[in-house]
Write a structure and sequence with these properties.
heterodimer; A: mainly beta; 5-stranded antiparallel sheet; 11 strands; about 55% strand; globular; B: mainly beta
Chain lengths: ~110, ~110
C-alpha cells in the first residue's frame, strides 16, 4: 500500500498554542482528508481537500492541499483541551480507497 | 440510521475460534469499507463493497478473512481460526461525496 508519513509523531503543547502537523507521500494524491480519533472511537472527518493549493477551514482548523499534490498540512489555532486525540491524514489516488498516515498524537496541557 | 453502527464493540476470542463482526452502514450509502487498525497505527484497507458486490478485497490479509454484504446494506466480516496477530480494531465506514464516515469499531483481542 501507499506510505503516508505524518509528522510530528506526537506533540505536547500548552492550551492556547497553535499546532501544525503535516503529511507527506511519494505518490500524487487527488484528495486529502484529515480525521481526528479519540480513544475507543472511530476516526471523525475534520476537513476534506479536493484540489492542489486548496486551503480550507473548519472553525479553528485549517488544512491545505500541497501544490505538489504529495503533501498536506493541518493547523489548529488556539488549542483547547478537547483538541486532544490522534490526527490522521488520508489520501486518495483513484477509486474510493483511502490510505491513512500513521497519525499525530496531540496532548494539550491546560 | 444516523451513523455507522458496529457490533460487538469488544470481542475476546480464543486462538482458533471463528468470529463475525457486523456493520450497519448509513442508510442509503452504496459504498462500504472495512479497515483494520492495529494499536498505534493508522487504519489499513481490507475490502470494499458497492451495494452487494465486493469490488476490492486486496487488503484481506489471508484466506481466513471473509466479508459479505448479501443485501447491499448490513455487512459482516468473518475471521476464521483467529490468530493473535488478528488482534486489532476493525473499522467499518460508509462513503459519500465528502469521504468516509466511520463506525466506532470492534476491538478484537485474540488470546
Amino acid at each position: 500500500g501507499q506510505q503516508l508519513n505524518q509528522s510530528p509523531q506526537s506533540m505536547f503543547i500548552q492550551e492556547g498554542e497553535d499546532v501544525s502537523m503535516n503529511c507527506t507521500s511519494s505518490s500524487i494524491f487527488n484528495t486529502w482528508l484529515w480525521y481526528k480519533q479519540e480513544p475507543g472511537e472511530g476516526p471523525v472527518l475534520l476537513i476534506a481537500l479536493y484540489k492542489a493549493g486548496e486551503l480550507t477551514s473548519n472553525g479553528r482548523l485549517t488544512a491545505q492541499f500541497g501544490i505538489t499534490r504529495k503533501d498536506s498540512f493541518l493547523n489548529i489555532s488556539a488549542s483547547i483541551p478537547s483538541d486532544v486525540g490522534i490526527y490522521f491524514c488520508a489520501g486518495q489516488i483513484t477509486g474510493n480507497q483511502f490510505y491513512f498516515g500513521t497519525g499525530t498524537s496531540l496532548t494539550v496541557i491546560p | 440510521g444516523a451513523g455507522v453502527s458496529q457490533s460487538p464493540r469488544y470481542k475476546v476470542a480464543k486462538r482458533g475460534q471463528d468470529v463475525a463482526l457486523r456493520c450497519d452502514p448509513i442508510s442509503g450509502h452504496v459504498s462500504l469499507f472495512w479497515y483494520q487498525q492495529a494499536l498505534g497505527q493508522g487504519p489499513e484497507f481490507l475490502t470494499y463493497f458497492q451495494n452487494e458486490a465486493q469490488l476490492d478485497k486486496s487488503g484481506l490479509p489471508s484466506d481466513r478473512f471473509f466479508a459479505e454484504r448479501p443485501e447491499g446494506s448490513v455487512s459482516t466480516l468473518k475471521i476464521q481460526r483467529t490468530q493473535q496477530e488478528d488482534s486489532a480494531v476493525y473499522l467499518c465506514a460508509s462513503y459519500d461525496l465528502y469521504g468516509y464516515t466511520f463506525g466506532s469499531g470492534t476491538r478484537l483481542t485474540v488470546v
